[in-house]
Design brief:
- The protein has one domain.
- Helices cover about 70% and strands about 0% of the residues.
- It is elongated.
């Protein structure tokens, strides 16, 4: 399972990095073309919007993986392990339920807008809306992984002072 999630994480980092790199490059190009050469690229604003949505929604996965989403860290710092683990179970379960609902509704909405074309690029809005259920699948996978990690800690009766799901990514200060 760790190998699978390692591959998924590397893939997500590569895709998200590429998306935000392209966002920066196309934004720079658009500014130069619009204000220096007075020749804006018509499709750029719309493409940037599509790409930004995909990048942000995929990046949420990394927050769920690291446990760096909104949390009550200050309240739980002094709490006993059983309370920390209970809170982690509630959070992971909530993310699982939310992700499942988002996948279902996202698929319905994506289907409904698939025939609608974007104004500038004339491509299906389904490509934009598909970011919601696709990203939610990743959210669900990592929430299930976090839930399993909490259960493994609770049922092996490990006494750790650290929460099972890290509060922030190890590569962040």
């Amino acid at each position: 399972m760790d190998k699978f999630f390692g591959i998924v994480e590397k893939l997500l980092h590569a895709v998200i990095g590429t998306i935000f790199g392209l966002l920066a490059a196309v934004t720079f190009l658009q500014v130069i073309l619009r204000y220096v050469f007075h020749a804006p690229v018509i499709w750029a604003d719309e493409w940037l919007r599509f790409t930004f949505v995909w990048g942000v929604l995929l990046a949420v996965t990394l927050g769920i993986k690291d446990g760096s989403h909104i949390a009550l860290d200050h309240l739980l710092d002094k709490a006993p392990n059983w309370l920390k683990h209970g809170f982690q179970l509630i959070v992971a379960s909530g993310i699982i339920l939310f992700s499942a609902a988002i996948i279902y509704e996202g698929l319905l909405i994506t289907r409904d807008v698939a025939a609608t074309k974007s104004p500038a690029m004339r491509i299906s809005l389904g490509y934009l809306y598909a970011a919601v259920p696709v990203s939610a699948v990743f959210w669900l996978l990592y929430a299930v992984k976090n839930l399993i990690a909490v259960f493994m800690t609770v049922y092996t009766f490990e006494e750790t002072s650290e929460p099972v799901v890290p509060a922030q990514s190890p590569d962040r200060p």
